[in-house]
């Protein structure tokens, strides 16, 4: 999704802003732009394409101003082109705006402004907002800050904003509603950005603006007020990752780096939560609502994409270990379905970014109906994390690749700890099983490291399927959500059409697709479904399909019939999703690289989906 970076201070602004936009590239975008106050004039440069194109445009122009705003745009209103790219200047040149989000009533506002003689260059809602602010400012003769607040009060929708005004060229304005915006606090300088990644290079002190807050920054200080002018003290959060967390660290792509980080990210999610000496689980983030959780009859999990797949694993976990009825819902469906929710329910929202618009809307709905809301988020201080009653951070570190990898395994381990703890507290798990499970859980980082050692072999297997046009992924039980996740990974980064299925469903339709060109990735480890999935593999082979089987180490039976096998270490079947997903992540990665795809920024996709 779109990204914002802004700067005010003593340094030349444009390299900081363009560098920051480069850090935000992972979010997905189609054009980029920058506006800098230079010698009292606002100089705007923008173009369709990459931030590197913008850099070439700006470099050599001798722009030395120390206040500016920049943007990477992911088109919502109007095609990706130079004109629709941000920043947008108001008709009389008073305000320049960069904007994330959508102003839903922009058509009505535009029509009213047109009647007043306003003309528009772009097709964007952002230009409408810039003109609305200017029109109020000129008509009412009020301060720029008051004009911004008045305009936002009549704008419906979501916004993260960076604004400069030519009449107050020593100020940087920022505002948010629904679309995240962080302010970095330096020494006599401030940074704004849509997430922490462009800021951590300069400061670890962040303020996350709340909905309907407006920040006004000068080199002397910052004021934060809401739309009704109520003042707020900035609440400073210390971010615990530096730039090393957001660099490729010697890997060719962020995705590969993040796949390889999983032994550590998994350990980080468990750190301090499984007590070393006793092996017991302590989840301080949910202690407060533990009595409610122990007595709960139904958990509803809401999420999107990969996080939804983690939620499906959660369904098996809570049912098996805690005997709690679980429903897993796509947040986008749940929010519009008038779902039946009562104050007795617990809703768990899972989100890497903590900003996914549909998931956020789903929890707001559930909250209105009185449910207790728990969050499992990776990004500290994110909107979902702040709007839930309790929850757990996954502490997986920044995930930059658009394809979610380490976030998935960390979400699953968080859900696993929760399910085991609830099972214990509800008296379902005895001491022995509880201890065995926590011991096994602590081994998962080591087991993932073992899978990663097989990367060369996995790359060779992938080579055989780099030209595939379709693929099917099959799994049963705990490995069914992993099949879905494997298919999602392949389609989103290599653009190969892929479907995940519960293996037994194959004969109800998809089997018609099997021929000698169809690769079938079968998750067939030693668990209670082994004989059944073996039969499914035989059904595929009988129709000349190509079988790539993910099997337990030492398996010989499937090796005899499959075209390729990838061996993974054995573990408790409930923990297998975290291990079995890793070869599927690597297969997608290698195939995408071999096909020349942009692995970290796949076409049409955004890292953080802040629009519905
Ligand atoms: O930030 P979230 O976990 O809420 O994001 C949800 C999905 O947008 C995300 O998982 C998406 O499906 C990924 N591209 C999958 O790799």
Name the helicity range: 25-40%
**Straight-line distance between termini:** 11 Å
Contiguous low-pLDDT stretches (5 residues minimum) are none
Structural class: alpha/beta
- DSSP strand count: 25
Strand order of the largest sheet: 3-2-4-1-10-9-11-15
Ligands and ions found:
5-amino-5-deoxy-1-O-phosphono-D-mannitol
Radius of gyration over all CA atoms, rounded? 25 Å
> How many DSSP H or I helices?
20
Mean pLDDT: 93
> What general outline do the C-alpha atoms trace?
globular
Biggest sheet layout: 8 strands, antiparallel
How much of the residues is beta strand, in percent? 15-25%
Overview features:
alpha/beta, 22% strand, 612 residues, 8-stranded antiparallel beta sheet, single chain, 7-stranded antiparallel beta sheet, 37% helix, 20 helices, binds 5-amino-5-deoxy-1-O-phosphono-D-mannitol, 25 strands, globular
Would you kindly provide a brief summary of this structure?
The protein is α/β, with parallel strands linked by helices and 612 residues long. The chain contains 20 helices and 25 strands. It is globular, with a radius of gyration of 25 Å.
Protein model, in words:
This protein has 612 residues and is of the alpha/beta class. Helix content is 37%, strand content 22%. It contains 20 helices and 25 strands. The strands form four sheets. Strands 3-2-4-1-10-9-11-15 form an eight-stranded antiparallel β-sheet, covered by helices on one side. It has a seven-stranded antiparallel β-sheet with strand order 5-6-7-8-12-13-14, covered by helices on one side. Strand 9 and strand 10 (190-193) form a beta hairpin. The longest helix is centred in the C-terminal third of the chain and has 22 residues, at 431-452. The model has no long low-confidence stretch (mean pLDDT 93). Residues 304-307, 351-353, 356, 359, 402-404, 488, 492, 605, 608-609 line the site of 5-amino-5-deoxy-1-O-phosphono-D-mannitol. The site of 5-amino-5-deoxy-1-O-phosphono-D-mannitol has 17 residues, from helix 10 and helix 17.
């Amino acid at each position: 999704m779109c990204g914002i970076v802004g700067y005010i201070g003593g340094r030349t602004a444009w390299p900081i802003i363009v560098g920051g936009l480069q850090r935000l590239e992972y979010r997905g975008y189609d054009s980029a732009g920058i506006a800098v106050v230079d010698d009292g004039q606002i100089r705007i440069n923008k173009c369709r394409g990459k931030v590197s194109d913008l850099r070439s445009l700006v470099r050599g122009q001798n722009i030395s101003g120390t206040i500016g705003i920049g943007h990477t745009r992911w088109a919502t209103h109007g095609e990706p082109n130079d004109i629709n790219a941000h920043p947008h200047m108001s008709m009389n040149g008073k305000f320049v705006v960069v904007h994330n989000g959508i102003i839903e009533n922009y058509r009505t506002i535009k029509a009213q402004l047109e009647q007043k003689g306003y003309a528009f260059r772009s097709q964007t809602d952002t230009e409408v907002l810039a003109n609305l602010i200017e029109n109020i400012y000129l008509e009412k003769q009020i301060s720029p800050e008051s004009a911004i607040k008045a305009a936002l009060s009549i704008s419906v929708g979501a916004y993260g904003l960076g604004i400069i005004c030519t009449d107050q060229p020593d100020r940087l304005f920022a505002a948010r509603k629904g679309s995240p915006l962080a302010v970095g606090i330096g020494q006599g300088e401030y940074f704004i950005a849509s997430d922490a990644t462009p800021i951590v290079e300069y400061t670890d002190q962040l303020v996350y603006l709340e909905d309907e807050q407006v920040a006004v920054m000068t080199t002397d200080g910052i004021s934060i007020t809401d739309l009704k002018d109520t003042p707020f003290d900035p609440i400073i959060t210390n971010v615990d990752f530096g730039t090393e967390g957001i660099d490729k660290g010697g890997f060719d792509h962020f995705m590969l780096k993040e796949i390889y980080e999983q032994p550590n990210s998994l350990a980080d999610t468990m750190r301090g939560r499984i007590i070393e000496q006793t092996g017991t689980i302590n989840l301080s983030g949910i202690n407060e609502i533990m009595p409610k959780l122990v007595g709960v009859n139904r958990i509803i999990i809401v999420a999107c994409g990969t996080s939804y797949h983690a939620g499906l694993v959660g369904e098996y976990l809570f049912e098996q270990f805690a005997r709690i009825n679980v429903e897993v819902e796509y947040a986008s469906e749940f929010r519009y379905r008038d779902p039946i929710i009562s104050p007795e329910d617990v809703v768990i929202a899972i989100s890497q970014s903590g900003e996914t618009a549909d998931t956020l809307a789903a929890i707001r709905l559930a909250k209105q109906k009185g449910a207790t809301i728990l969050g499992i988020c990776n990004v500290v201080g994110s909107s979902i994390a702040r709007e839930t009653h309790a929850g757990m951070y996954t502490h997986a570190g920044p995930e930059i690749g658009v394809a979610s990898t380490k976030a998935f395994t960390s979400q699953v381990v968080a859900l696993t700890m929760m399910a085991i703890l609830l099972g214990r507290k509800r008296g379902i798990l005895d001491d022995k099983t509880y201890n065995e499970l926590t011991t096994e859980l602590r081994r998962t980082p080591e087991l993932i490291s073992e899978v990663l050692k097989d990367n060369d072999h996995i790359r060779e297997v992938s080579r055989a399927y780099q030209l595939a046009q379709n693929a099917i992924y099959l799994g049963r039980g705990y490995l069914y959500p992993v099949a879905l996740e494997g298919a999602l990974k392949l389609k989103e980064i290599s653009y190969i059409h892929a479907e995940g299925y519960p293996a037994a469903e194959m004969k109800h339709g998809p089997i018609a697709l099997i021929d000698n060109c169809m690769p079938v990735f079968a998750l067939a480890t030693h668990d209670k479904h082994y004989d059944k999935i073996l039969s499914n593999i035989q059904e595929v082979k009988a129709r000349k399909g190509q079988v790539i089987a993910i099997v337990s180490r030492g398996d010989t039976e499937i090796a005899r019939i499959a075209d390729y096998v990838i061996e993974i270490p054995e573990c408790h079947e409930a923990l297998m999703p975290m291990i079995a997903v890793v070869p599927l992540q690597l297969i997608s990665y290698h195939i995408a690289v071999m096909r020349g795809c942009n692995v970290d920024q796949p076409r049409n996709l955004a890292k953080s989906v802040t629009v519905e």
